[in-house]
TrEMBL record:
Signal peptide: none annotated. It holds the Pfam family adh_short_C2. Its EC number is 1.3.1.9. InterPro entries: Enoyl-ACP_Rdtase_NADH (IPR014358), NAD(P)-bd_dom_sf (IPR036291), SDR_fam (IPR002347). This is Enoyl-[acyl-carrier-protein] reductase [NADH]. It comes from Pontibacter populi. The keyword Lipid metabolism applies. Pathway: Lipid metabolism; fatty acid biosynthesis. Keywords: Fatty acid biosynthesis, Fatty acid metabolism, Lipid biosynthesis, Lipid metabolism, NAD, Oxidoreductase. It catalyses: a 2,3-saturated acyl-[ACP] + NAD(+) = a (2E)-enoyl-[ACP] + NADH + H(+). Belongs to the short-chain dehydrogenases/reductases (SDR) family. FabI subfamily. The lineage of its organism: Bacteria, Pseudomonadati, Bacteroidota, Cytophagia, Cytophagales. The keyword NAD applies. Gene3D superfamilies: NAD(P)-binding Rossmann-like Domain.
Length: 270
């Protein structure tokens, strides 16, 4: 069901890869709610994914951009405003990648050059996005910027290795830039800490199936699916959440508040 929550709004959505990705779901919902937006991803990711199919469905143009490149981001924001005919009302940062995880490196055996790449791609890119948006004065007043995070920023998940640090940095950047953009343009900046989700990136983490099941049994509502996360992001882009900023918002079925659940006790008892 559509409520026209984003009618007349313009956006940029980073990170849509395929139908499993949360960014893909967000784009679909934003389109349903009346938004116009451009899609963007790194050129290498675009070759791996199906973004053209999404663009056709949403009547959106694609602008390739490496989010770690300030030059690419400058081009992205310039072109996006030209294509959409005005300043940007919302941005989704759905970017995360760890070479250490991809190569199966344990936490005690990280390749430090790869660690820096993890931080640059998954967290510092968020700062660069907002840096460019600020310098170009590209955001509308009362705009909304959202990045996707995970509770490993606060808790230990051994197989999440250096991505846990990237998410912690991501959330810190959201708070600090949220203050800056809030004072300057009343732009709000938040992170959404999503349940384990069966995306291409998520399932690449070692032991994913185990902690997906664990989180599902711990959460009174169960794991929040990608479609529900898209709904939540749409509300954060809308005018209904104008005074929500600098927050890390848990979208996890209650997992983050639980100590232990009856399902886990029963599982252990067996």
């Amino acid at each position: 069901m559509s409520y026209n929550l984003l009618k007349g709004k313009r956006g940029i959505i980073f990170g849509a890869l395929d139908e499993k990705s949360i960014a893909w779901k967000v784009a679909m919902r934003a389109h349903e709610e009346g938004a116009e937006f451009v899609l963007t991803n790194a050129p290498i990711a675009m070759r791996m994914g199906e973004i053209n199919k999404l663009a056709e469905h949403c009547n959106a143009q694609i602008i390739p951009a490496d989010a770690t490149s300030v030059e690419d981001l400058e081009n992205l924001f310039t072109q996006a405003q030209e294509i959409l005919g005005g300043k940007i009302d919302f941005v989704l940062h759905s970017i995360g990648m760890s070479p250490n995880i991809r190569k199966g490196k344990s936490y005690g055996d990280l390749n430090y050059e790869w660690f820096l790449k993890t931080l640059d791609i998954s967290a510092i890119s968020f700062h660069k996005v907002m840096h460019v948006a600020e310098k170009q004065d590209a955001m509308s007043e009362w705009g909304s910027i959202v990045a996707l995070s995970y509770i490993a920023a606060q808790r230990v998940f051994p197989d999440y290795t250096d991505m846990s640090h990237a998410k912690a940095v991501l959330e810190s950047i959201a708070r600090n830039y949220g203050y800056r953009l809030g004072r300057a343009k009343k732009v709000r900046v938040n992170t959404v800490s999503q349940s384990p989700t069966k995306t291409t990136a998520g399932t690449g983490v070692g032991g994913f199936d185990a902690f997906f099941e664990y989180a599902d049994k711990m959460s009174p509502l169960g794991n929040a699916p990608a479609d529900a996360c898209a709904d939540y992001c749409v509300t954060l882009f809308s005018d209904l959440t104008r005074y929500v900023t600098m927050q890390n918002l848990m979208h996890d079925g209650g997992f983050s508040t639980m100590g232990i659940s009856e399902d886990i006790v029963e599982m252990i008892s067996k």
